[in-house]
Amino acid sequence: MNIKRNIIFSLESRKKEGRPIVVNVPIRMRVVYAGQRIEFTTGYRIDVSKWDADKQRVKNGCSNKLKQSASEINAELLKHYSHIQEIFKE
């Protein structure tokens, strides 16, 4: 059975003293299905300037404060995405 769902990666919106935090922001994964929404943290953080919101991935050639490369983080995001897809296919 294939359940209709939507999986979105985005940066968490946080503010400190009324100003948006743009450095070292957590990457979240949101799963929407059957009118319900659940959000997970991915365990990765990135600066807002290094995030491609359209592609929902870290920009190529960038790294985070822990020196994790864009390719490493994006590969892990793809693993999260694939895992959720498998759950819905079962």
UniProtKB/TrEMBL annotation:
Pfam families: Arm-DNA-bind_5 (PF17293). Residues 24-88 form the Arm DNA-binding domain. This is Tyrosine recombinase XerC. It comes from termite gut metagenome.
